[in-house]
Amino acid sequence: MPDAPALRLPRVLRDGDDAAAVDVLHEYFTRKLVKTGYLRTGALWDAWDPSGRRDADRDVFTADDLVAVTLLSVKVPAQGALILLQDKRSELTALLQEVGEDRDLADESEAVTAESPVSRLELALTEVHGIGRTTATKLVARKRPRLHPIYDRVIGLQLGTTVEHTEPIRVALREDNRELHRRLIALREQAGLDERVPALRILDVLAWMQGKKYVPNVVG
Questions:
Q1: For the chain, counts of helices (H) and of strands (E)
Q2: pLDDT along the chain (220 residues), means of 10
Q3: H or E stretch at 171
Q4: 152: number of CA atoms within 13 Å, CB side?
Q5: pLDDT given at position 218
Q6: Taking CA 181 as the corner, what is the angle to CA 116 and CA 137, rounded to the nearest 5 degrees?
Q7: CB under 8 Å to 185, separation ≥6 — which residues?
Q8: In this structure, are residues 199 and 188 in contact, taking their beta carbons and an 8 Å threshold?
Q9: pLDDT, position 220
Q10: What is the pLDDT of residue 105?
Q11: Which positions ≥6 away from 84 have C-beta within 8 Å?
């Protein structure tokens, strides 16, 4: 198998600028938007569990999951929702069970390929009416947030992962004794964020905010 293309880190990570990175995380997760007076809906994503059944339902897609992805600005149309929750329920549950428990992508020693269970789950989701690559990754990330990174065009362009996404991230997280993974967790702690925000989310938020042209407000 050819080597995965190298990941292009967001600028704050390349520069080792922790203060700037923490400011980006505060802007996304904890500061209210001037226009609305509310937090970004994406800031609610990681802890979203209105029914209290997220852990119990880890191997089955539910209506809660369909609401959750709207917090990240995508939605599954009605026909697709029916297919997801009814027609393909057993197939998708079997794939989730094959993926196994949630765990850090940095701990995965084997390459993520098209034949990997998580890749086959993502592909199966894209075969549902109205679900494309971006929505599929958000649905998988909803069920396995530490294992599967969210993809959208903005993030892909910033990280250089518009073709391959998961494998380049896995490789980067594992390099130098998991240095990048450990740094992302350290930034989460510096920003005072909930432990339910995984390393992958820290990376995708830093990339997304850079793509949206946010300039960190850091004095000095």
A1: 10, 0
A2: 81 95 98 93 96 97 97 97 97 98 98 98 97 98 98 98 97 97 98 97 98 86
A3: helix 166-190
A4: 19
A5: 80
A6: 40
A7: 199, 202
A8: yes
A9: 56
A10: 98
A11: 61, 66, 76, 92, 125, 128, 131
Looking at residue 219, its pLDDT comes to: 62
Block residue for tokens 């300039």: 215
Block residue for tokens 């995984």: 198
The pLDDT, as a whole number, for residue 149 is 98
Structure tokens at 91: 């197939």
Q: Indicate the residue type of 147.
A: L
| Residue whose C-alpha is closest to residue 127's, from 67, 66, 64, 76 | 76
Task: Please report the DSSP string for 89-134 in residue order.
Answer: HHHHHHHHHHH-S---GGG--S---TTSHHHHHHHHHHTSTT--HH
Q: Which amino acid is residue 133, in one-letter code? A: R
Strands, E assignment, the chain: none
Domain locations along the chain: 11-211
Residues contacting 195, CB < 8 A, separation 6+: 188
Percent of residues in the chain assigned helix, strand, coil, to nearest 5: 55, 0, 45
Lookup result for tokens 């850090």: 104
Q: Is the pTM of this model over 0.90?
A: yes
Q: Report residue 18: phi and psi, to 5°.
A: -60, -40
Residues 177/104/192/49 CA torsion (nearest 10 deg): 180
